[in-house]
Write a structure and sequence with these properties.
alpha+beta, Fumarylacetoacetate hydrolase, domain 2, 2 domains, four-stranded antiparallel β-sheet, about 25% strand
């Protein structure tokens, strides 16, 4: 099932894509695609709805972030060996965690806005994990049972703010528009193996990143289990699982985004995003 949030920013309504790809409104059944609606029982109730009887949404319409009301946005650094190497780092022995401000979240086609003073804005295609059930000290064996579904995240980063000066990752990752999420939240039953998905990113039509989630150092099950050891993961929380090689910082010479650039990215089975840089 592909859940979406559509409409003007700040006023999104819940919906889903039916088997024919038609967008249907769910606002008569759930208040939002957010934590309270992501439990197994609610998702099963939505699946059982006769889709042909649900209101059809007139097109075109704007898609917002596919999950609303995110409380916690956890990111994983250097989770692909080839990316660690291009960053000049050794492979981590355990997941590297940092946070991204939830105010950075935007829809899959909203602009990437270069903030004042930023000169090294970079791209990162990532598999996103959305939690469906409260997870605390969960085992790796059971970890995927706590996942509602998966989505695409562009973990936009300002490398100067991230690595220079005091070198705080969170401040280099949290500007407004630095977290496009969506277009869909694809529920877990449609993605039986999150470690078998191709992912890619192109800038101005040139492929810059192309890999597979099979190349992650720490798989999704390990990440959910590991993170839940240190904090409770609540329904609707988001995990960005890391990016493969091919970021602008790793280019020779380094290449960063500029106004007018077009960024397209996708993950197998989860759709595509497209952003214009402003």
């Amino acid at each position: 099932m592909k859940l979406v949030r559509y409409g003007e920013p700040g006023f999104e309504r819940p919906g889903f894509l039916d088997a024919g790809g038609v967008l249907r409104d769910l606002s008569g059944h759930i208040a939002d695609v957010s934590g309270p609606s992501l439990g197994a029982k609610t998702l099963e109730r939505i699946r059982a709805l006769p889709s042909e009887q649900l209101p059809r949404v007139a097109e075109p319409t704007q898609l917002g972030p596919c999950v609303g009301g995110v409380r916690t946005f956890v990111c994983v650094g250097l989770n692909y060996l080839d990316h660690a190497r291009e960053a000049g780092a050794t492979a981590p022995v355990e997941p590297i965690l940092f946070m991204k401000a939830t105010s950075a979240i935007t829809g899959p086609s909203g602009p990437i806005v270069i903030p004042p003073g930023a000169t090294k804005v970079d791209w990162e295609v990532e598999l996103g994990v959305v939690i469906g059930t409260l997870a605390k000290n969960v085992s790796e064996r059971d970890a995927l049972d706590y996942v509602a579904g998966y989505t695409i995240i562009n973990d936009v980063s300002e490398r100067g703010w991230q690595l220079e000066g005091t070198g705080q990752w969170v401040k280099g990752k949290s500007a407004d528009s630095f977290a496009p999420i969506g277009p869909w939240l694809v529920t877990r039953e449609e993605i039986p193996d999150p470690q078998g998905l191709d992912l890619w990113l192109a800038v101005n039509g040139r492929i810059r990143q192309q890999s597979s989630t099979s190349q992650m150092i720490f798989p999704v099950s390990r990440l959910v289990s590991f993170i839940s050891t240190f904090m409770s993961l609540h329904p609707g929380d988001v995990i960005a699982t890391g990016t493969p090689r091919g970021v602008g910082m790793g280019s020779k010479p380094p290449t960063y985004l500029k106004a007018g650039d077009i960024v397209r990215l996708g993950v197998q089975g989860l759709g595509e995003q497209c952003q214009t840089v402003m």
